[in-house]
Structure formats: C-alpha cells, structure tokens
C-alpha cells in the first residue's frame, strides 16, 4: 500500500513539475521580443581618402525596437539621428561614412545601443587609405611654393596698393594631382578641376584657380603678381597645387 502511495505521489510531483516548466515556457514565449539583426558590408576596402557603406538594421521581433545611439570609431560617421524606432519585421537603412586624409589602416567597433531583448550589437569596421599616388607633373612644387611664399610672407605693393604679409602656403599633392589631371583632360581646365577635386574627395574648401602662361616657375610668379595681387595675397588660403601642359599653367588655392 505504501509503495502504491509513493508511486502516485511521485507521479503527481512529476506532473506538477512538467506543468510548472510548461507554464514558464509559455510565459517566456509570451514576453515581447525585440530582436536586433544587422547586415551589410563592414569592410570599407581600400580607398584614396573616403568611402561609405549602407547598413541594414532589422527588427525581427514582435514589438517596436528603439535604437538609442550608434557609436562609431574615429574616422567613421553617420548622419542618422538618434534615437529612432524600428517597427516589428521592418528594416531601417543607415549610411556609414569613412574619411581619413592620412594613409594607413583604420578599424574599430560600431556599437548599436538599443532596448533589444536579443541580437548582436557590436560590429567591426575596417578601411585602408593608400598613399596618394603622384600624377606626373612638370611643375617643381617645392620651388614654386617657395617663390610664392617669398612674396606672401613679406607683403607687396601692387597697382598702387599695399598688401600686408599673410601666411605661407603648403604644397598639396592632391591639389596638384587634380590640377594636372584637369590640364590633361582636353576640356576646360577650370571646370575639369572642380570635377577632379570632387572625384578625389578633396576635403578643403575650394577658393580659386587661375590660368597663366609662363616658361618656368619664376616667370609664372613674375607674370602672375602684377595682375592678380588680390588673389595672390588672400590671407585665409592654406594649400597650393598646380598643373602644367607646355607653357599653360593651372593653379589652385584652397583652405
């Protein structure tokens, strides 16, 4: 009799246990789910200076997901405004931009902060910037910059007006590349220059350019100064680049 009682008691306990765990599972299944799913290419590849990728953020759960913040490593950015919400079974596409002026390997973690109940939120971004290739250019950049700065840093009298000293310029390889490619294009060099600057991802503010005829660097400065004093002595430009075909020169200054 005792054995029968023990057997029935054991069976009851097993049944109660099964019912308890089943209830727990049902309760767990009933909880709202906000599942973060992220897809896209996180390798920005090799670039001269800039690149971008599209990243898809999906909520595969059954309740709206709130993205609180997107942390990005240095040199990576996004124009997505935080916070934002994603409805169940919906996807939001964001743009992640990369820009670096210096050659090297850039990598770090993108962290998506949210109220997710599950899903991976850390992703590694990587990009590589190559050394800027030098386009064959007949202009002696070092010499040309030195001649320009000799006038800029001392000030000058031109057309009856005195222009005080201004900061020295530095030779910019990207500007020189763009100017030389514009001269080589066979089209209007000043128009082609703007296209080249955009194509190369030049991050400086474009100021002005000029076309002149001269046989060498010294003659260019001598010919340029009397007719372009105001442009020559602009104070807020910092970078200089130049291209040349024959005796025709294209000079660009930016900041």
Describe this structure in words.
The chain has 255 residues and is α+β, with helices and mostly antiparallel strands. It contains six helices and 15 strands. The radius of gyration is 32 Å and the shape is elongated. The N and C termini lie far apart (99 Å). The model has no long low-confidence stretch (mean pLDDT 83).
Q: Unreliable runs, pLDDT <50, ≥5 residues?
A: none
CATH topology of the largest domain: Pathogenesis-related Protein p14a
Indicate the mean pLDDT.
83
- Write down the overall geometry: elongated
The CATH homologous superfamily of the largest domain is termed CAP
Secondary-structure-derived class: alpha+beta
- What percent of the residues sit in helical stretches (DSSP H or I)? 25-40%
